[in-house]
Design a protein that fits this description.
Blueprint lengths: L11 E5 L7 H14 L3 E4 L4 H4 L9 H13 L2 E5 L7 H6 L26 H18 L5 E5 L14 H15 L2 H7 L28 H29 L5 E3 L1 E2 L6 H8 L4 E4 L3 H4 L14 H11 L4 E6 L14 H11 L4 E5 L24 H15 L7 E2 L3 E6 H9 L1 H20 L4 E6 L5 H5 L3 E4 L7 H12 L3 E4 L22 H4 L1 E8 L7 E4 L2 E4 L3 E7 L4 E6 L8 E8 L2 E6 L5 H11 L9 E2 L4 E8 L2 E8 L5 E11 L5 E8 L4 E6 L2
Helix pairs in contact: 1-3, 5-8, 6-8, 8-9, 8-14, 12-13, 14-15, 15-19
The structure holds beta-D-galactopyranose (GAL).
Beta-D-galactopyranose binds next to loops.
Length: about 675
Amino acid sequence: MTEYPLQWKQMTVGVCYYPEHWPREMWETDLARMKAAGISVVRVGEFAWNLVEPEEGVFRFDFFGDFLSLCAEKDMRVILGTPTATPPAWLTEKYPEVLNVTRDGVTYRHGARRHYNYNSPKYRELCARIVEQLAVHYAGHPMVVGWQIDNELNCGVDEFHSEADQAAFRAFLRDKYGTLEALNRAWGAVFWNQTYTDWAQVYPPRRVPMDGYNPHQMLDYSRFVSESAIRFCRMQADILLKYAKPGDFITTNGMFGNLDNARMTRECLDVYTYDSYPSFGEAQSGDASANEFRDRESSRYLTDVRGICPHFGIMEQESGMTLLPAPAPKPGQLELWATQSVAQGADFVSFFRWRTCPFGAEYYWHGILDYDSRDNRKLREVSAFCEHMRALDPVCGAKSAAAFAVVKDFDNACDARLDSWHAKVQAFSEREIFAASQYGHAPYDTVWLDGETPLAALTAYPVLIYPHPFIIDPQRVELLEAYVRQGGTLIVGCRAGLKDMDGHCVTRPLPGLLSGLTGTDIREFTFEDAREPFTALWNGEVVRMPVFDEILTPAEGTQVLARYASNGYAGEAAVTERPLGRGRTIHVGGAFGRDLVKKLLAHAGVCEPFRDIVEAPEAVEIVLREKDGRRFLFCLNYQATKQEVRLKATATSLYDGKCLTGRVVLPPYGTAVFEIEN
Ligand code: GAL
């Protein structure tokens, strides 16, 4: 994990504001009301290109200049967005080559946002110019504290097929492979007669019959899209860097697919920010049981974000009902969700948005204030949150304490979007590992693995679960081996080691390059038939082996922890353990069901890490952040009913300074943060 400098010296609350949506006369009152609520930062400008460059090459700086002057008067700090997610109509009309094109060759037209492509030389030139103009004029302004590049790179649109993208894809491939022979080999082009004899025949994956896409071409294409987005981001960051005052930060808000966010953050940003909309978890289906975690599931995404940048910010924190047909945040939920972000590592929370816009495509995306601007419950909750944030200042910069880590990497994340087998086991295991961790009060961190990951990023954890590394290369295996040798417990699941970096299935026995670590061999494997569930016996107890099952053959020196007990495989190895150096590798021949994860964590000795501090029901999320020997315990109640936790140590409530021990009641959707006495 890369260590980023702390961007926020104290807990900070902001809000997204669109001065261009409101008559100027409203600005002053709006800023005054924000300040009165405890908000100290506004993010502005990310869709307002036209206000700065109304005609090609004609720049006006009065609009944001006036707004910034008012901010100076009101002591409101500002994060400025670069407006490149919405090119103006004059631009797209004059230079249609900047527009993006779908896989089917249809050009996206002006009228929404994110209709541009990252690779058009013209677009890059015009973006560079507007960014530079903004930076020259505003970077020195005392109220400007940070810059947001574009808005939600790859959100909604993460495929690009314009002519510029075709050319850039070819250049990317030439650079990677050098020759068409090498490309043909990597893409397995001999299959279905795809052999290319001229670079001009090579395209981003266009529509093909029966969705029979070439998986290797698709994998390279995902990497290419990521590369394009990162280049686009870096171009802007390099310009901003020239002008930004020392201490001002450069960020972008995420996070979306086909983008290596960890690499982008490392290479282009000072800090990563995330947009958190927990009600998406509520909206997925009318059937409440379909997503048992609902809003609580956001803790999973926030954990992934923390793996990118340990002290991230929230650029957009949901504050009202969204366009999706989902319920409005119930009384208490707005504050609960914002506190969830802080518990997971955010030291800055900016709400989306100050007031709902009465016009435009987002007139149902609700902000803190409704169309009528009256004081309301949401504003009261924001004020209460701001007050709590002041009390949480000692937590600023504190690290989250994790019982173990889940390993992820960009190649496998791409593969899991493209390969239906991978998608199925990965989605299942991620959800279930989260379930076991949440209900068992054993939080985890995400470690994003890539060629630059230092061993120390792994050895920070006693246990790593790398659920399904379908794709693996010798360099990563070497790193994992070093981790195990120095005393770590590495746990891998089914289909580990199946593919090489081109996405070809390996022809040696599975788990391929990982065999040396696991000391296993796989001769039989199958998807589970839900009507005939797979089970195994671990120390006499039945445990489910869900979704996909591999029959493991242990080599000498590999111990069997659990054996299959069903479907004709009774007695065969299902979970094994192989010692190496001071550590061990556990091989799970399946996906990770929650009861299995519980057993694995118990076996590895990392379950219930906070049992000496607190006892809590499953319904309450428990998180610990630590700094300079001080421990801060977050208790979050996602239920409509009150919940009780029992503090086993003496603790001080940060919200009201009361010293407590024993039973503490959390109101419906209530939160509490305690400093635990050492
Ligand atoms: C975000 C986006 C905002 C706004 C918001 C709606 O994804 O960054 O611009 O569209 O969703 O809630």
